[in-house]
Amino acid sequence: MINGERRIERPLRWAMVGGGRTSQVGYKHRTGALRDNTAFQLVAGAFDMDFARGRDFGVNIGVAAERCYPDYKSLFAEEAKRPDGVEAVTIATPNGTHYEITKAALNAGLHVICEKPLFFKVEEAEEIKALAEEKGRILGVTYGFSGQSMLLQMRAMVAAGAIGDVTIVNLQYTHGYGCDPTGDKTNESQKWRVDPAVAGPSFVLGDLSTHTYYMSNLILPDMRIKELLCDRQSFVGTRAPLEDNAHVMMHYENGAVGTMWVSAVNAGCMTGQRIRIVGTKASLEWWDAYPTELRHEVQGQPGQILYRGTDYLDGIAKDDERLGALHVEGLSESWANIYLKFAIAMDAKNRGDEELLKDLVYPSIDGGLEGVRWIANCVKSAEQGSVWVKYE
Ligand code: NAI
């Protein structure tokens, strides 16, 4: 159970690049990082492309004016001169900037938390992974839904054989906000998402499905995709070559099969993230509409619902429990859980505690790299005419 008591000696001095007043995701980061007041302290930032707006915003959320910087380069350079300079930085800017800012942050000796999709190319992710290792720094990736404790319960139940051998993996992350194309021209957060120069080689595959794909790997750590087929299209034609809808079929090395439906044009859909894992004896299903519940359906028996915060759950799920049973936990707690693990990982790295790091389950550079690999394979299949491609 998490009750806010400190897990590391002292909170880490933390900065943000991006995540300013108009950003979609910035507050989620602060909600997560600052939840317990014992993991991170926000002391600096280059919050916005517009310096004046970014500084005004920074001051309004409690950052000293002189530590609100015009850009990431001056942030890293000036903070390095201070005895109390930042130790960790979050990068919450549009996709096309992640690689250069992450590289600069690692070279400045900082631990990094970066948004997904991490980078455009697998080679970039491999290069940055090597750089993080060389510098002895942590790189966490904010798969923000993945801190929900019922996903860890699924992981534990699959490992314990509760559903038998996994045969079918059914994944979905869809919404309908892309049905109206007006925002592609008028909304700052939407414009870059449909521009390949900034978004990268995909729209919804990177924006949405990387989350659900990471979560499936969290639940099924031993399963690897052998080959996949991706059919992607843009129902709003101006988004081409990027997709606003895609279906992916997967063949796993162990003989299991899977599907992912990802879409920004699932009209009217407000709760469209689902994960169903089917085994030879039973199935598990998690749905973001009821994040504190887990359906366990055993063939031939009445279905069961497991609830978060209860004694019968596995220890790994109980460890990340915050509010107790009867109360609804959700996305805020999920972000707080992953940020707490980022802090624990960074502190362990600082102390050279590799044993702790080996067993810590959190979205690390490996999960970020796998997300980039997933997109690359999906795009490769789609571009070859939606054919099966070997997963590499
Ligand atoms: P946005 O367009 O809404 O906001 C971007 C923010 O970054 C703005 O404050 C902008 O002024 C600032 N910015 C842009 N370039 C900058 C630079 N070079 N230096 C400093 N600040 C800069 O974008 P949004 O939706 O917040 O997405 C940002 C990133 O977060 C993307 O990579 C996106 O994929 C990811 N994201 C992740 C989510 C999650 O659940 N993990 C949810 C939403 C977005």
Task: Tell me briefly what this model is.
The protein is α/β, with parallel strands linked by helices.
Break the fold down into its secondary structure elements and pairings.
Blueprint: E1 12-18, H1 26-33, E2 40-46, H2 51-60, H3 72-80, E3 88-92, H4 98-107, E4 111-114, H5 122-135, E5 139-141, H6 149-159, E6 166-174, H7 183-186, H8 188-191, H9 196-199, H10 204-219, E7 225-233, E8 245-252, E9 257-263, E10 273-279, E11 282-287, E12 293-298, E13 304-307, H11 315-319, H12 331-351, H13 354-359, H14 365-383, E14 389-390
The structure holds 1,4-dihydronicotinamide adenine dinucleotide.
1,4-dihydronicotinamide adenine dinucleotide binds next to strand 1 and helix 8.
